[in-house]
Amino acid sequence: MRHERQMELLDRVAAAGPGMAGLHAEHSMVNPAAAYTDPGRFETEQRLLFREGPVFFALSCELPEPGHHRTASFDGIPIAVIRQPDGGLRAMVNACRHRGAPVLAPTAEPYGPVSALRSMSCPYHAWTYELDGTLKARPASYGSFDDVDRDCALHPVAVAERDGLVFVRPGGTEPIDLDAVLDGAADDLADFGIADQIHVESRVHTWNINWKLVLDTFTEVYHIRTLHRATIAPYFNSDCMIFEPMGRNMSATAFRKNILEEMDKPRPRRSILPYATIQYFVVPNALIVFQLDHFEVWRIEPIDVRTTRTTTSVYATSGPVNDDLRDHLIKNLDVLLEVTGTEDFPLMEQIQRNLDSGALPEVMYGRNEAALSHFHRSLDRLLQPGAKANPGADALR
Ligand code: FES
Ligand SMILES: [Fe+2]
Fold first, then answer.
1. What is d(CA 294, CA 36) in angstroms, rounded to the nearest whole number?
2. Which of 47, 78, 191, 213 has the fewest beta carbons under 10 Å from its own?
3. Per residue, what are the HEC states of the chain?
4. Parallel/antiparallel/unpaired status of strands 286-290 and 29-32
5. Is the CB of 125 under 6 A from ligand 1?
6. Sheet of 198-207: strands edge to edge?
7. What whole-number distance in Å separates Cα of residue 379 and Cα of residue 283?
8. Which among 202, 212, 221 is positioned nearest to 348, based on CA atoms?
9. What pLDDT is recorded for position 319?
10. Contact between residue 60 and residue 161 where contact means Cβ atoms under 8 Å apart
11. Model confidence over 194-232: pLDDT tens digits?
């Protein structure tokens, strides 16, 4: 992160005053509980945000070489993304054109580096496909399909890659407008050198909560002093994050309690990085977290209104990834998943049940939870009839 950007954030903390009140949003927000529980709302979110998309798929470094592939599903659509021999990416529906079997097995969990494919073979009747999805052969069919007048390539979907980030449009092939997707976060994300990361490991979990509760977890630090009193509370400020709206997206930075010690240094030598957890929310489903010496990324896949799959990944900022570095990064991932998995998400599951009971008509987001309000306002805007979630998506409606 550029020095002047770091100084902007540091100066805001230094000027924030008691309780970090200077970092508060102008307004609080009341959100209907139905935002987390209503199947109709969920169906609209799935269609507009996750089917028409675009959605975040992976970091480029998870698919570094030709034949490297990853799978995921959005609004039930199974998607495979494959690195091509020319270095580009192709995305396709991971369902065989014969009778619909998944051609590529779901990525095994937990997962690290992938092996490179030369072609793809369906596990049901062995139809084989090139890496770009075109049909290569129908072994042992002896002309049985010669009278089929269909192109039998795997159905393509749009994919786009910039600055180390990969997005797909699960529902179609209309090109992805990355300026609209990255909306305000593009410069910062480009600046972090995400394209040069090295993927170390990912873990997949399923939680019984609405997908937005996963992201809500990371939008405020107000809960740290109580929920995390036994773990991270001694180290982290629990008053307010540094929130920055970035169009539909946003950044929210948590920081250590001793951050203002940095103000004792001459300005050119100050850095926020040793104190900060800098998070970028790329709507709808990516949380990209910059720590001092590594990145963590959360990818969100909603399953149903109250079930969500999360993929949490850790990356090294430079190679080679020797055993010590790998151990260090995996320990970081373990701690992150331990705290969120034993403290945050079990409570979120209780919150989901309480909201599902219908006894609580609404929830409140305080002025000290600015990123939380922005996230939900941003979604509300994108879900309004006629909203331009992405100009290229119009043809899908
Ligand atoms: S379903 Fe794939 S070859 Fe038959
Ligand atoms: Fe938390």
1. 32
2. 191
3. CCHHHHHHHHHHHHCCCHHHHHHCCCCCEEEECHHHHCHHHHHHHHHHHHHCCCEEEEEHHHCCCCCCEEEEEECCEEEEEEECCCCCEEEEECCCCCCCCCCCCCCCCCECCCCCCCCEECCCCCCEECCCCCEEECCCCCCCCCCCCCCCCCCEEEEEEECCEEEEECCCCCCCCHHHHHCCCHHHHHHCCHHHCEEEEEEEEEECCCHHHHHHCCCCCCCHHHHCCCCCCCCECCCCCEEEEECCEEEEEEEECCHHHHHHCCHHHCCCHHHEEEEEEECCCEEEEECCCEEEEEEEEEEECCEEEEEEEEEECCCCCCHHHHHHHHHHHHHHHHHHHHHHHHHHHHHHHHHHCCCCCEEEECCCCHHHHHHHHHHHHHHCCCCCCCHHHHHHC
4. unpaired
5. yes
6. 198-207, 307-316, 294-304, 286-290, 276-282, 249-255, 242-246
7. 8
8. 212
9. 78
10. yes
11. 999 999 999 999 999 999 999 999 999 999 999 999 999
Nearest CA to ligand 1 atom 1: 99
If you search the block for the tokens 């990145």, which residue do you land on?
295
Smallest CA-to-CA distance from 117 within 69, 182, 53 is with: 69
Amino acid code (one letter) for 150: R
Q: What is the pLDDT of residue 108?
A: 67
Q: Residue type at 387?
A: A
User: How far is Cα 369 from Cα 221, in angstroms, rounded to an integer?
Assistant: 8
Mean pLDDT of all residues in 308-320 = 92
d(CA 64, CA 338): 29
Q: Is the CB of 138 under 6 A from ligand 1?
A: no
235 lines ligand 1 (CB under 6 A): no
| Average pLDDT value over all residues in the chain | 94
250-280 pLDDT, tens digit per residue, is: 999 999 999 999 999 999 999 999 999 999 9
Spell out the domains of the chain, with CATH numbers in brackets. Answer: 1-51+183-386 (3.90.380.10), 55-175 (2.102.10.10)
Best residue for ligand 1 mutational test, from 125, 135, 148 (most atoms within 8 Å of Cβ): 125
> Peptide bond before 54: cis, by omega within 30 degrees of 0?
yes
